[in-house]
Design goal:
By secondary structure, the chain is mostly helical. It has a domain at 5-106. It contains five helices and no strands. It has helices spanning 5-23, 28-35, 40-85, 89-106, 128-140. α1 packs antiparallel against α2 and α3 runs antiparallel to α4 (89-106). The relative contact order is 0.05.
Length: 158
């Protein structure tokens, strides 16, 4: 039998309090003790469920906002399209901005290329051993990570 509205409201209230206590830094046992959970695992599970539900709801809201935004871009494009096709330069510029905005919202715009540089904008200095290690990692398909004994990427050990 499903929980009643009162039970669901009580559960939601306890979950909200548990999340607030966790954010405040309390441990699972302290949360369980304060809110009468059977054990710390139950408190952890309840907070996890609350966070998962919150993320799912937030994701749905973001998807809805994207959809509405794309519809707005569509309406703007429809309004300016005939003028742009007739050669109106301002309308064409507006259309280009609309297309760029839509691509950004939909995530279809081209990725931004980034280039790393060393101090003063110059090249990054690597020792021969570092270059060999980097080439080995690239060939193996591994992702390079900072080694704990290196303190500065520009330091060549001198």
């Amino acid at each position: 039998m499903p929980a009643s509205k009162a039970q669901r409201a009580q559960t939601a209230d306890r979950r909200a309090k548990a999340v607030a206590l966790k954010i405040a830094g309390l441990g699972w046992q302290a949360i369980a003790d304060q809110l009468d959970y059977s054990d710390r695992g139950a408190a952890c599970k309840d907070v996890t469920r609350a966070l998962e539900a919150s993320l799912a709801e937030e994701s749905e809201q973001v998807a809805l906002l994207r959809h509405v935004t794309v519809q707005r871009y569509d309406r703007l494009q429809a309004a300016w399209w005939p003028k742009a096709l007739q050669g109106d330069v301002k309308a064409a510029e507006i259309i280009l901005k609309i297309l760029a905005g839509r691509a950004k919202v939909e995530g279809t715009d081209a990725p931004i290329r980034a280039e790393l540089s060393g101090p003063g904008g110059g090249p990054i200095a690597l020792t021969t051993a570092e270059m060999d290690e980097f080439e080995t990692l690239l060939t193996a398909g591994d992702v390079p990570t900072a080694s704990p004994d290196r303190q500065d990427a520009g330091d060549d050990g001198d």
